Amino acid sequence: METYSLHKKINIVLDEETRSYSARGRRMGALGSMNIGLQSMPNNGWIHEGQIPGILFDESNKEIISSPNATILLKLYSSLDTESKSDFKIYLISNLRKDSPYVSIGYFIFFVLYRIGETIDALKNARRALSGDSQHGYSNLLGILSMIISREYLDIDPTIYEEIKTVLIGDTEHNFQLFEKINLALLKHLEIELGDVNPEINTDRDKVLELWGKKFSNIEVPTLIKEIDDYFREGDFSPTKFATCIGRIRVLLVEVSKRIALGIAKSNSDNSVTESSEEAFFFQYLKNKKFISDNEWNILRSLYGMASENGAHSLISNREYARLIRNISYEIILLFVSKYEI
């Protein structure tokens, strides 16, 4: 696609957005074709005494904010090759300046750039070349950024928030509580990150690691536990990530049973257990030697079976299912390691 032709197509949409903005004016903070305005703050209206006014909406949802004109531009962008996509971004960013014919719709240009992952470059250019314009272009841009954060706070990576704060340090424009919203958004991310943290389970995990280090030289178990916990620090579980995580839990159950079985066999000069024995044999051996009870054997086998399921679960999320298996596994492993005597 020739550059002129691409710019002409973009201008058609920008001209229509300019018309929309002019037609709606700035009544109640209206923003052209956007389905939200600067007055669309979260939790407007009365609050009960003692409550703190909300600055983020109760639910993070990337499907709320929209614009028919933005949809057209985003479709155009998706149809381009790599070189033309780069030109698309550069052209839009170049119009975030005071002498641009589209200065009044900086909010719209920024929204499109945000949707295609150019938030920081757009914001940097806007602050440098658009700040202080007489048509409220920069102020409205900050307003739409504020609304994006209020509505989509969990869809924005925490590193982007840190970059936004760096760009806006010292900004004297009305910031729509941007720094307060960013801090609260980061708090929401932290809550999600810590959502799986159970102090009691973590204490028992640490006891497993401590006892294992005293009783075994094998480092595979501590490594597996670290890998499993790392998966839970990385956010939501895709089907692939879920399958990998519970696969590591299955390997952990086998590795603990194997090391204990080999230790018992060695102390009894029993050559029936080897490194290459079948996984189920280790479980059965521990039961036969009365190291674990019938009920404990049933739990171990059930956990192994649950940790072998790679499909999605309709009633609970992949993350919840994996957390359940992990937590029970840590508890049963602690029981086994505590009982094992060198």
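Next protein, fold it too.
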Amino acid sequence: MFVICNTSGFLIANTIGILLPAISQDIGISPMQQGMLSSAPFWANLTLMVVVSWWTSRYPPKILVTMTMILGALSLFFQGWGPSFVWLMLGRLAFGVTMIAREPARSLLIRQWLPQREVNIAGGVSNLFFGVIVSGGLLLTPVLLRVYGGDWRAVMNTFGVVFIALGVAWVILGRERESEVTQSETKVGAVESNAEGSIVKRAFGFREVWVAGLGFTGALMSFASFNSFLPTLALESYGISLGGSGLIAALYILPGRFPEFWLVIC
């Protein structure tokens, strides 16, 4: 349930490219502003990830996911209302903050429910869901846009309704438990007041963290820029419909997730 809720945020962050032609026609934004809108959730990630994650990791996953889903829905409705670029940009930034605020719940839930030997499998399942949900969203968004007669605001509001529904489903189905590990760590954390700060400092002391982080940054930059501008380029230069662009993007996102999942299982 958490993976579905969390990955739905990435779906919305990565399908903005399908809506950019309609947004540009409606409020008249430049290519640079289009890039800013597309990258806004990731700028929030870049600037606030460590601080926000450190702060929100203090809260139980049940409460954390519920609140971030509600706030995420509100930011989507705000974007659907936004009359100009500035308001839309603020809504996208706020949505990015809710995405990173929800991330600590993943680690907490994994540690509560899974033994160490199954953590990699959990990561594989998460990546598989990412491929299915995000590629499905890229296929579905052009259909919604066509159903609503090109009204991108109605699509945003629909995403907001979906987030509310997922939040309700999480409240009903989402559970957490306090394992022996988390109980002992809570006792230790109560004694060692500077534990969180030392953990962050130690994490940045590993060379592998920096190498993996920089590599992932490059991959994400290519991924996000391609998703953002492919629909506009294909539509204006080659006459390819938004549905065609969604299919192209879905075809390079989904297939790689299945062999990746299989490798993790093996």
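About the second fold: The domain at 2-175+193-265 is CATH 1.20.1250.20 (Growth Hormone; Chain: A;).
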